[in-house]
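Friendly challenge for the regulars: who can give me the structure tokens for this chain first? No prize, just bragging rights.
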Amino acid sequence: MDQKFDDIRPFNDAEIPAAMNRIAESSALPLLASYVCPEKPLDEVRAMLRSFKTIKDFQLGVMHHANEQIIENSITQFTYGGIEQLKTSKHYLFISNHRDIMLDASLLQNVLADTGHETSQITFGANLMTHPLVVDIGKSNKMFRVERPGGSIKEFYKSSLHLSEYIRQVITKEHESVWIAQRNGRTKDGNDQTDQGIIKMFCMSKPDEKIAAISELNIAPIAISYEWESCDILKTLELYESQYTKYTKKPGEDLNSIITGILQPKGQVHIEFCAPIQRAELSAFSRLTNNEYHKAVARLIDTRINTNYRLYPNNYIAHDLRFGNKTYSDLYTQQEYDAFKQRLDSLEKYETCDIDRLKDIFLGIYSNPVDNK
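First reply, four minutes later:
Bragging rights claimed.
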């Protein structure tokens, strides 16, 4: 790997032993170990960490097991489909809708590992890379740093180009896949929409060949669907503040969302691998201006994701409640309706808010995917 990417890249295998020692000595390890490895004494967990010599050792020994614990404790059924469209000999740019800060990409890694594919590198927001333990775990898990927009236009351009060059090198020269969300930050309102700015960023590292710039990245869209939306109440409150008062991100908010996403019951969760985008599809856009091309590619990805998004009874219940009809009443049971209504009515405890508006936002999170599909 070119040294110019040392500021954002994950660890390499040579750096794993030192990272494992730091994790083993972390004051937060007892709490983490009690969740990930509840059956093991702490000294045994420390010894296990120190035995890992490669990224693969850590991913299979810790992260894979951690994901299995999450699935066992908070997911009633975890499924996936479309994996047969991927070739183990190829490396992809997985562009996914983004509903949970950590789980979208993390659960994907288990599917890849369990089906004979190599795990992917994962984008990791610089805003989350603050605590040394988080950095060590993230960079040992193939996560690379992505700067959030901010600063001057010149600085943003420079960091975007740097990221674009890094992603291209990982896929075309290092022969690894990459996961990235379709937009900056999670979808809060249920509308999964690819930011054309991300497509523009991909093209920055090959500016004179817009078709090749995208086609050689082997884009494979991914649709992840949660029966119970991750952090649904937190997202509702954030959207309410953004629309009707003034939203200011609170200290520790991202960490709270990560923990809530892990622990909150999610019901069924499904990952669908969409058909990879082919060069022939991109060539149909060759006469478009660069700006129109970026929009067209984003729409192509959106079509794949929205078409393959799995709808659950909650989505249909929310739609009927929001629009005051029973259009989809044959797609859910009374028991499912009552469970969703109970979750909706729990918003009434936020007495300082306009409850009707709060409930409409909540219903939108679940009902918008019905309209989009």
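The longest helix spans residues 55-74. The chain has a mean pLDDT of 95. Your move, everyone else.
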